[in-house]
């Protein structure tokens, strides 16, 4: 899904647009399976009781609340979190009700680096760290293909898309 063009300046174009890596959805999926499994187990236990319909309704309400809180909220948070690199800036946007955003002009970026541990390397993500004119480096966690994003961002900052290949022939 492309980032809305009406939010960009006329000469600006999107270089890369990412949502956080799917690994942040693993815990919500496991939570969903546990809630459904425990709910079905408890519903089968109370099935022979005279108050079973009331217990089933209570289990359903608790199950819906838990699934909403533990599964749907993280899914919506993941879907509404964007990391965008354009020809002019780096943008981070997140949230539905309380929307937050961060823009860093490419001209203000001093350095770009990435980190990823063994688990991140296996699943193909990492943390992108951007040092700009601000006091603290900005960390963006769970960026998919972080090495590729790092390389593309470095090329955009240096304003030379062929800089990696310039000295190859020598």
Keyword list:
single chain, alpha+beta, three-stranded antiparallel sheet, four-stranded antiparallel sheet, 170 residues
Quick structural summary:
The chain is α+β, with helices and mostly antiparallel strands and 170 residues long. It has helices spanning 26-45, 52-79, 118-123, 146-158; strands at 14-18, 82-86, 89-94, 100-105, 109-115, 125-132, 138-144.
Task: Give structural notes.
With 170 residues, this protein is of the alpha+beta class. The chain is 39% helix and 26% strand. The strands form two sheets. Strands 1-2-3-4 form a four-stranded antiparallel sheet. A three-stranded antiparallel sheet has the order 5-6-7. 13% of the residues are buried. The C terminus is likely disordered.
Topology:
Elements: E1 14-18, H1 26-45, H2 52-79, E2 82-86, E3 89-94, E4 100-105, E5 109-115, H3 118-123, E6 125-132, E7 138-144, H4 146-158
Antiparallel strand pairs: 1-2, 2-3, 3-4, 5-6, 6-7
Helix pairs in contact: 1-2
The residue ranges in which pLDDT falls below 50 over 5 or more consecutive positions are 164-170
Question: How many E strands?
Answer: 7
Helix content: 25-40%
Task: Tell me, rounded to a whole number, the average pLDDT.
Answer: 87
Radius of gyration over C-alpha positions, nearest whole angstrom: 22 Å
Strand content: 25-35%
Q: Between the first and last Cα atoms, what is the distance in angstroms?
A: 40 Å
Number of separate helices: 4
Principal-axes geometry comes out as elongated
| Sheet of most strands | 4 strands, antiparallel
The arrangement of helices and strands along the chain is: EHHEEEEHEEH
Instruction: Determine the structural class based on helices, strands and strand pairing.
Output: alpha+beta
The strand order across the widest sheet is 1-2-3-4
């Amino acid at each position: 899904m492309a980032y809305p063009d009406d939010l960009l300046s006329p000469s600006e174009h999107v270089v890369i647009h990412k949502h956080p890596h799917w690994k942040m959805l693993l815990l919500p999926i496991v939570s969903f399976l546990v809630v459904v499994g425990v709910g079905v187990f408890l519903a089968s236990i109370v099935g022979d009781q005279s108050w079973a319909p009331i217990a089933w309704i209570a289990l359903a309400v608790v199950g819906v609340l838990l699934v909403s809180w533990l599964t749907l909220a993280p899914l919506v948070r993941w879907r509404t979190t964007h990391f965008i690199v354009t020809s002019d800036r780096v943008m981070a946007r997140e949230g539905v009700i309380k929307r937050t955003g961060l823009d860093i002009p490419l001209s203000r970026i001093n350095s770009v680096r990435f980190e990823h541990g063994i688990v991140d390397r296996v699943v193909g993500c990492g943390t992108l760290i951007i040092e700009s004119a601000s006091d603290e480096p900005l960390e963006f966690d769970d960026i998919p293909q972080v090495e590729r994003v790092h390389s593309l961002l470095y090329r955009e900052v240096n304003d030379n898309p062929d800089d990696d290949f310039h000295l190859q022939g020598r």
